[in-house]
C-alpha cells in the first residue's frame, strides 16, 4: 500500500473513532470547561497526529489510546459530579478581575491579565462606561465574562457570583 494511502486510511479510521466516541460521550468531550478537558483534547489531537505519522505502529494501538483517553475523561467527569474534592482538584476557580468599575490588580496578576487585556475585553463586551461594569471575571475556561448594568441597579444576584474567587 502506498504511504499516502496508508496515512489517509489511518486518519479516516482514527477520526471515525473520535467521532463515534464523541457522539457517545457528548459534546463535553471537547468543551472548554477545565484544564483537565483541555489536556484531554490536546492528548487526543496528539494521538491523532501520531496515528498518521507513526506508520510502524498499528492503527488499532492509536484507536485503543483514544478509547482510553475518553474512558479516563468519562470517569473523571463522573467523579467530578459525585465529589466536591475531585471537582476542586480538576476544575479551575473563576477569578474576579474587576468589581463595580474598579480593577483588582492582585487578581489580574494571578491571572496574567494586563490592563490592556482588560480594556480590550471591556470593549469587546460593549462596556461603554466603567460605572456600568459590575464585574469582570476570568472564567474556569480562560474566557473573560463582563457583567454590566446601570450603577443604580440592584446589582448581581449572589448565585451568579457563587464560586467566584475575590482574592
Quickly describe the structure:
The protein has helices at residues 3-25, 35-53, 59-82, 84-90, 105-111, 115-124; strands at 95-99, 102-103, 133-138, 144-148. It is α+β, with helices and mostly antiparallel strands. A four-stranded antiparallel beta sheet has the order 2-1-3-4.
Structure write-up:
It is built from six helices and four strands. A four-stranded antiparallel β-sheet has the order 2-1-3-4. The longest helix has 24 residues. The protein is elongated. It starts with a helix and ends in a 19-residue tail after the last strand.
- H/I helix tally: 6
Q: Helix and strand string, N-terminal first?
A: HHHHEEHHEE
What percent of residues adopt helix (DSSP H or I)?
A: 40-55%
> Main beta sheet, described?
4 strands, antiparallel
Structural class: alpha+beta
In the sheet with the most strands, the strands line up as 2-1-3-4
Total number of domains: 2
Shape: elongated
Mean pLDDT: 88
Please give the alpha-carbon distance between the first and last residues.
60 Å
Beta-strand segment tally: 4
Radius of gyration, in angstroms, nearest whole number = 21 Å
Report low-confidence residues grouped into runs of 5 or more.
none
Which strand-content bin applies to the residues?
5-15%
Amino acid at each position: 500500500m502506498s504511504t499516502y494511502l496508508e496515512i489517509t486510511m489511518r486518519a479516516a479510521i482514527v477520526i471515525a473513532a473520535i467521532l463515534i466516541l464523541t457522539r457517545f460521550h457528548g459534546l463535553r468531550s471537547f468543551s472548554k470547561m477545565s484544564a483537565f478537558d483541555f489536556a484531554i483534547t490536546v492528548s487526543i489531537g496528539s494521538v491523532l497526529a501520531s496515528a498518521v505519522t507513526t506508520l510502524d505502529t498499528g492503527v488499532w494501538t492509536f484507536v485503543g489510546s483514544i478509547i482510553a483517553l475518553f474512558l479516563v475523561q468519562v470517569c473523571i467527569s463522573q467523579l467530578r459530579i459525585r465529589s466536591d474534592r475531585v471537582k476542586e482538584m480538576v476544575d479551575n476557580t473563576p477569578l474576579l478581575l474587576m468589581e463595580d468599575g474598579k480593577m483588582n490588580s492582585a487578581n489580574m496578576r494571578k491571572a496574567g491579565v494586563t490592563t490592556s487585556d482588560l480594556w480590550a475585553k471591556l470593549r469587546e463586551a460593549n462596556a461603554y462606561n466603567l460605572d456600568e461594569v459590575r464585574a469582570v471575571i476570568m472564567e474556569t475556561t480562560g474566557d473573560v465574562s463582563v457583567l454590566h448594568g446601570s450603577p443604580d441597579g440592584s446589582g448581581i444576584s449572589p448565585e451568579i457570583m457563587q464560586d467566584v474567587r475575590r482574592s
